[in-house]
Amino acid sequence: MSQLRVRGLAGKKALTGTLRVSGAKNSALKALAASILFADELRLTNVPLIEDIETLSTLLLGVGVTSQRTGDHERTFSAQNVTSGALDVPLSEKIRASIVLTGPLLSRTGGVSFPHPGGDVIGARPIDLFLAGFVAMGATATSMGGTYTLKAPQGLHGADIFFRIVSVTATETLMMAAVLAKGKTILRNAAMEPEIPHLAEFLNRSGAKISGAGTPTITIEGGPLLRAGGTSYDILPDRIEAGSFAILGSLLADELEITNCVPEHFAILTEMLRFSGAPIKAEGSSVRISGNGKRSNNTFKPLTISTHEYPGFATDLQAPMTVFLTQVNGESNVFETIFEGRLNYTQDLVQMGADITMGNPHQIIVRGPSTLYGRELFGPDIRAGLAYLIAALVAEGDSVINNVHYIDRGYERIEEKLAAIGAPVKRMQ
Ligand code: EPZ
Question: Of 24, 112, 231, 248, whose Cβ has the fewest other Cβ atoms within 10 Å?
C-alpha cells in the first residue's frame, strides 16, 4: 500500500510554476459508458490516467466491450460484441459510476443486472431516481439478494420524467438510455454540470438527437445505434482538479499558472477566492495566481460556502475549500447541502489543529487562522484525500497520508505534478 510523505511548508508561499489539468474523471467515466451506444469504435482523447478508468474499463470488458490504450491519454472502446447486461458485482461495488452503465446497457441489450453501486462513503447515495426512470421507460425492475434486475425485452420507450432531486449520474444515465429508446423522452429538473452538455454535443455529432442539455429540461428523440465514424471525443478538463489547484495555490504559491482548464467551469470558486483576498484571475484556458507571496493568508477574509448543483459551489470542492478557511482570518460557515456524510473528514483537520465546530451533519463553523500540525492521516475518500494533502502542505512538520488509492482514483500522478511546483511530496511504495 503506497503512502504520500509530505513535508509541511508551515504556511510559506513557496510553490511556483505551472500545473496542467488532466481530463475530468467524471467526464471520462460517462464517455466510457457511452461507448455502449455506438455501432463502431469510439476513440477518446485526454483520458486521465486514474484508477477509476481502469475499473470501469474492466467492468465494460465483462459485458463484451473491448478497449485498447492507443496513447498515453488515448483509448478506443468497441461495443460491437456486447454480449451481456450482467455487471460484475465486486467491481460495480467499487465505484458509483458503475450505475451509469445500466442505462446504455438496458437500452441496447434489453436487460441488465447489477448490485447497489459502491463509491465514496459520503452519504446514503440511493438509486431510486434511476429505477423510477427505467420503469417509466417501460422496464420491469426487481431486486433480490442485493441484485437489481431490469428487463425491457421489447426495448425502452420514451417517457416524461421529473427528477425529485437534481442528480448528475441519473441525468446522464437516463439521457443515454433515451438515445436508443423508441420515441421522445423529456428529463425535467435535470442536472446542468458541464460534463452533461459536453457529452450530449458529442453524441449529437454521432447521430443522437438531444436538445436542452445544460438546462433543466433535456429532450431526447430516440433512434438507432450511434456512429462515431472515426471522430474522437476529447474529454473535458477536470474542473475539480483545477479548482483544488487554485485553492492550493491561493494558500501556498507565490506565482502559479493552472493550464488546460475551462475557468468558467469553476468560476464560483475563483470568485470566492478573489473575494477572500487571493490574487487570482482567469486568462483564456488558464487561471493565474500572481504576486501572492506578499499577501499573508491571515489577511484573507472569511467566507460562507453553501454547496449547490452547477453552477453553484461544487460539493467536490468543499473539503479543500474548508482547508483554505482554516487559514483565513475570522469565522466562516460551510453548508454541505448535497450529501449528508461529507463533513466527517473535518475531525481529522481538528486533530491537526483546526478550529472547526460541527453544528449538524450538514453544517460546520470554521474559525481561523489556525496553525495546522503534520500527522499520520488516512484519506477517507477521493476529495477529502486531496484536502488532506493540501492540509499537510500547509501544516508545520511532516505528515504521512495513507489510503492513497482514494487520491489515485481521481487524480493523475498527483505527487509528480505537485513536486514540479516545489511541493515536498513523495510517494513511498
Ligand atoms: C456525481 O455523483 C459525482 N460522481 C460526484 O463526484 C459528485 O459529488 C456528485 O455528482 C455531485 O456533484 C460521478 O459523476 C461519478 P447525485 P452522483 O446523484 O451522481 C441524491 C467524486 O468524488 N440521490 O448528483 O452519485 C443523492 O443521495 C464524486 O468524483 C437520490 O436521492 O450524485 C444526493 O443527495 C463523489 N436518489 C443527491 O441526490 C438517486 O437515485 C445528488 O447526488 C440519486 C441521487
Answer: 231
